[in-house]
Known about the structure:
The structure holds two protein chains of two kinds.
Chain A: H1 10-16, E1 30-39, H2 44-54, E2 58-66, E3 72-81, H3 86-95, E4 99-104, E5 110-121, H4 125-136, E6 140-144, E7 148-155, H5 157-165, E8 172-177, E9 181-184
Antiparallel strand pairs in A: 1-3, 1-4, 2-3, 5-7, 5-8, 5-9, 6-7
Chain B: H1 8-18, E1 23-26, H2 33-39, E2 45-48, H3 52-66, E3 70-74, H4 78-81, H5 84-92, E4 97-103, H6 119-123, E5 129-132, H7 139-151, E6 157-163, H8 164-168, H9 192-204, E7 208-212, H10 214-219, H11 222-232, E8 236-238, E9 253-256, H12 263-271, E10 274-278, H13 284-287, E11 298-303, E12 317-320, H14 323-330, H15 340-352, H16 365-376, E13 381-384, H17 388-396, E14 405-406, H18 417-427, E15 433-438, H19 439-444, H20 449-454, E16 460-465, H21 470-479, H22 495-501, E17 505-509, H23 515-524, E18 530-535
Parallel strand pairs in B: 1-2, 1-3, 3-4, 4-6, 5-6, 7-8, 7-10, 8-9, 10-11, 11-12, 13-14, 13-15, 15-16, 16-18, 17-18
Helix pairs in contact in B: 1-2, 1-7, 3-5, 3-18, 11-14, 12-15, 16-17, 16-23
Amino acid sequence: MSSPTAIETPSRRRVLARATAPAPAVAATGLHTISLLVRDAPGVLVRVAMVFSRRGYNIESLVVSASAESGFSRMTVTCSGDGAILEQMIRQLAKLIDVVHALDHTTSDRFETEIALIKIRCAGALRREALEVAEHFNAKVVDYAPESVILRVYGSSEKLDAMVSLFAPEQIVDLVRSGKIVMARALEMT
Amino acid sequence: MEPKLPTGAEKLIQCLEREGVEYIFGYSGGAAMPIFDALVDSEIELILVRHEQGAAHMADGYARATGKPGVVLVTSGPGATNTVTGLLTAHMDSVPMIVLTGQTITSMLGKDGFQEADVTGITYAVVKHSYLVKKASDIPRVTREAFYIATSGRPGPVLIDLPKDVTQGPCDAAFVDEVHLPGYTVPSHGDPAAIRRAAELLQNARRPVLYVGHGAVISGAGKSVIRLAEKLRAPIVNTLLGKGAADETHPLHLGMLGMHGTAYANKAVDHCDLIMAIGARWDDRITGKLDEFCLDAVKIHIDIDPAEFGKMVTPDVAIAGDARLVLEEMIPLVTSGDTRDWLDQCEAWRQRYPLRYAKQGGLRAQHVLDRLHAVSRGDAIITTDVGQHQMWAAQFCLSTTNRHWISSGGAGTMGFGFPAAIGAQLGCPDKKVWAVVGDGGFQMTQAELATASIHKLRTKCLIVNNNYLGMVRQWQELFFDNRLSGVDLVGNPDFVKLAEAYGVKAWRIRRPADVDRVLAAAHAYDEGPCVVVAEVVKEDNVYPMIPSGAPISRMIIEKPKEPLEKPTGST
Lengths: 190, 571
């Protein structure tokens, strides 16, 4: 349960000495992207995951990788949950001793990408169709077997979703996605 | 010949000595044996407890009474898991504590060895931070970091899990003085612009309230709270854990607010036009129904932990910093406020709704606690357990001095009061220390009578015995049609005989006329621990009461005549 929206009573207005307070920003419930710089310490992944689970957030994807500085890792988390508690949850993440910083990149000016490997069952005539889709999405065939191909595609998560949706579910033998990674543009910190 | 290297355990104990540790509260066992062995040659005194939960609460009481971190040493597996309740208690109430747990040898980790438990895994949710030490050479760094983390910023418990081969093997690392924790920053002074804005709002307010919590106790902000209140002419209220930060007998102080706070404190909060939290976190016991809490008031929140901002209440101004430092910068910015009508109104509420209890119909807990306050002249350290006695003690034993009130607030841990008093007594040997406990909670850690007795501590324990789990019984009476379930403690021992079996002096009070005489005798008793058993009326209720989940305006001041709806709050 989030805190109630402040109602502008005459008494509050008098003390605040202004006619109206700015409308409180309530982020929509949906997918959020959070980037964390963490110490490369045992247990850090559990501690981070516990903040999400305790606040009722569902982790859609999680990428842990090396960062520019040795001894530190980068985590990119795509998650869904109550937008109203996002800011407070990020502060709880930042509070962890091993978290150097936690930033919300849901609406920031950033570049984001994801990579997917899609294994398609496509013997005979279906193969041409699969290759056409691949070409359209700039995907590369990285494995060419008698009854299947593996396509590698990268781009925005939405582009990957669109490509996957073009295949019938029974045609997709396997799907592995890297999860989204983001980087702030220009000299902003990610 | 090269000098022999110390073992990991010896190095650990040397590190603890460098941190100024006086006492370790502990219980031995296989995986911790190298550490207990190293303790033999140390100046640090081991307080051998009777159950590890007791050790954790003693360390907690020691820490709350002194401000220094309490240290616990236990073995692996069940020894470690028995401290989990103590960790939760300390974590919820921001108490600095170091818990050292023995662990199976590193090569056996994860293989279900004897007395192995994934202790760091079990405790993630109840520690500020934790370590599993894999190399003896990490011991000096980890120990230094643990003490720094436990005691700085918003304090909390830190656990160090120590495999036996690590403590038994050689340690060639040097002592560490500097910590390097790039992910850990501690706010101190607060943002000057936010402090200026807060001062402006305080100046504009006509009905301000200063709401003081445990953060003010921890930072020692009490005198600054009083100075600010006097300058603004603003009333003060405090939380259960904020008791003692600012003198509760000060004329501007309205006592405790919240579920069982005074009616006048709650009325003030319900009618204020500005409320400033000073090291308090808008707990559900304080706000009642959040959607209706202080809708008419501007909210300022001072907290050293920025993660508290917006968790319960969205503040108009948030100031991340140490309560005392922030207030000291705020005080010069305010001048006397126009609050005469407001103070008159608060005073009228105080006169109209005083705390009261029946003087007839047997021995009342409130009477005993009221007199305990008088006998101890407000100068004793009082610890409590959890339940009705806790709330009555909070209402009647007004705290005048910082760190003289010790109670499990956030966790509400039964079994806390008596061991916490033992820890407080060791930390403050010249103080009179009273544990106020109920018959239920006392029995959860009563074996620590042995610990108090062996060390001839002058800890005094008042057992308020109504042979019930009184608070739950009160709720069942009020909200569950008096269908009593799981609250009758039939089979309680004779607590006087129980104390005597441990060699502890004990008295019993049955009649109101005996209260003063027995309490005075117990207060003066100097030869060792003592127990006073007050056999109080079985059925009595704590009022005022705000049913959980109800708005403050629905406070029940006296026993209701109509049946009440079931509360909708969490607990």
